[in-house]
Write a structure and sequence with these properties.
InterPro entries: Adenylat/UMP-CMP_kin, Adenylat_kinase_CS, P-loop_NTPase, UMP_CMP_kinase. The chain is of the alpha/beta class and about 190 residues long. The protein has helices at about 20-30, 35-45, 50-60, 65-80, 95-105, 120-135, 145-165, 180-194; strands spanning about 5-10, 30-35, 85-90, 110-120, 170-175. Helices cover about 55% and strands about 15% of the residues. The relative contact order is 0.20. The chain binds P1-(adenosine-5'-P5-(uridine-5')pentaphosphate and magnesium ion.
């Protein structure tokens, strides 16, 4: 029987730098990056998807898509990849997500640790607004959606607490340049690999 796929959850506020740091981790360690948000945006864009409208509604309102949809997309993406370690970015974000993962995926995977990018809200907001102004095309890179995203983000803090109690959380200050942040990320990953 082959070993279970390994998982690293990557959490942090909207714009904390999850995607940016995951890209660097992919380049350095060859992990497979699965952004739950990207998977949902891809599903939303598929012609004929029965979930397009629901996903669009939740994204614009900064609320969370029901876990059955997100978890299935993650599972399918994992099955399509030959990688042995997956960065799951932006998931689980709330209790519904966590319950769904524990029920469907926890036994099929090995959770290595949780990377938590800690960043003040005002920095996160500036980054997302800058990205929106530069033409990201994201329907949630505007102040109204961002305010809602930060309200919803409060629920993610309780998920981080849940994993902290299991000593699985590595907290990284991401209010610095992306390269400085990554120096600490590398140290964290190397320590776990020892
Ligand atoms: N940037 C990054 N790092 C920087 C640094 N150190 N210094 C200066 N600039 C930096 O970065 C954001 C921007 O900041 C970029 O322009 C970057 O260049 C710059 P990024 O790396 O993209 O940050 P990230 O944390 O990934 O921000 P993102 O906006 O993707 O975070 P969200 O968590 O809000 O977005 P996500 O795509 O995960 O989710 C979007 C929505 O999808 C949610 O609100 C929700 O409605 C839905 N969703 C679900 O329902 N369920 C899920 O499981 C996941 C998402
Ligand atoms: Mg992202």
């Amino acid at each position: 029987m082959s070993a279970k796929p390994k998982v690293i959850f990557v959490l942090g506020g909207p714009g904390a730098g999850k995607g940016t740091q995951c890209a660097k981790l992919v380049d350095t360690y060859g992990f497979k990056h699965l952004s739950a948000g990207d998977l949902l945006r891809e599903e939303r864009g598929k012609a004929g998807s029965e979930f397009s409208e629901l996903i669009e509604y939740h994204m614009t309102n900064g609320t969370i898509v029901p876990v059955a949809i997100t978890c299935k997309l993650i599972e399918k993406a994992m099955q399509k990849s030959a990688a042995d370690t997956f960065l799951i970015d932006g998931f689980p974000r709330n209790k519904d997500n966590l319950d769904g993962w524990l029920q469907e995926m926890a036994d099929k995977t090995q959770l290595l640790f949780v990377l938590f990018f800690d960043c003040p809200n005002d920095t996160c907001i500036k980054r997302c607004l800058k990205r929106g102004a530069a033409g990201s095309g994201r329907t949630d890179d505007n102040l109204e959606s961002l305010r809602k995203r930060f309200v919803t983000y409060q629920d993610t803090l309780s998920i981080i607490e849940y994993y902290k109690k299991q000593n699985l959380v590595i907290t990284i200050d991401s209010n610095r340049s992306a390269d400085e942040v990554f120096e600490d990320v590398k140290i964290a990953v190397e320590n776990v690999k020892k």
